[in-house]
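A quick aside before the break. I want you to see a complete sequence-to-structure record at least once, exactly as it would be stored in a machine-readable document. Don't worry about memorizing anything.
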Amino acid sequence: MATQPDVFIIPAIHVATLLITGVSALYVVRQRTTEYVQVKDLLVFVHIFFMGVVTLELLRYFITSSAFLTVYTVTGTTLVLADVFLLTLVALAVYYTPRGRALVDVFREVFKHSTQAIILVLYGVFILFAAGYLAIVRPFGPQTVPNLIGALQGLTSASCAETLQFGSCQVATLFNGPYLYVLLGILLIFMAYPSLLLYLARSRTKDEEVRAAFTVLPIAWTGIGLDLLFFNGYLLNKGIDASALGYLIAAAAFAVTASTFRRATLLSAFFQPAAVAPVVGPAPISTFSGRLGLEPEKVIGREFLLEVDPSVKYEESIRDLAEELGTKQYILFAFTSKGSRSTEPFRGLRT
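That is the input. The structure line, written in tokens, reads:
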């Protein structure tokens, strides 16, 4: 029999997985960006669906009825399939960098390329078939197997079937052979197709941060696929339910994905079209950038702390900056309190 503390180990793993995934999702939500809005939204839904899967796993630990097992299997597997498709869309959005902010813009951009459109449609139909077949035919049944705690105690499927020891044995899903091959095919495509897109995206930029990001993502997503194959496929068929550990590892992979998109500026170099560097000469010493010893273009996109002598009117320097940017067709916004004298430098400017 499992000792009393052992009873809480599996639920604690699921709770930790939910916390990791929740923090990761919050990390994605709080990103402020305009360069890859679709990717951000897709990743938020990926995290939400995955949290739904883990919640069902947590409930399965306490509920052993056949009715719940059906709901758990159909809903949980469908959410996993949805995540697989959404992550594929993320890879496509990264690769094609669609214009616009809506999800439909991703599809609109993909369908401009016949080969990718055919692959996406076929893959989507394959996933829909797997989800529909699962819901209608229900090619699965219950099996009583030891979980991580039971496996460490030396329990087997036979001993668990004789006496369902709470905390050591669980009722799990056993898919039939043909449907397992369907799920295997979907996971293998997921491990290959999005990873290839991200690798191709990596080769299109020389920015080292971006290249590093698109090296980590394929590794993380391939790890998720291997994780599901091993814990939800191989071990479960061997009569060991170690899915709690498997989903914890998958949550860590999702956290890596979220951290890759941690700064909007990290990927802006990739998502924004490359511009040809203009030939610039030394800035006149009378200009704002000239007094800093910089070329005018190097002022843009940087933060400066302006330290001035109290006896000097700092407004004149700000006016010089506004005039310099205006002559180069840049738009300048100045935020001051209402009625502030700080607006004086901008009066009369036509930039």
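Two observations worth writing down. The first strand starts at residue 140 and ends at 146. Residues 66-96 form the longest helix (31 residues). We'll return to this after the break.
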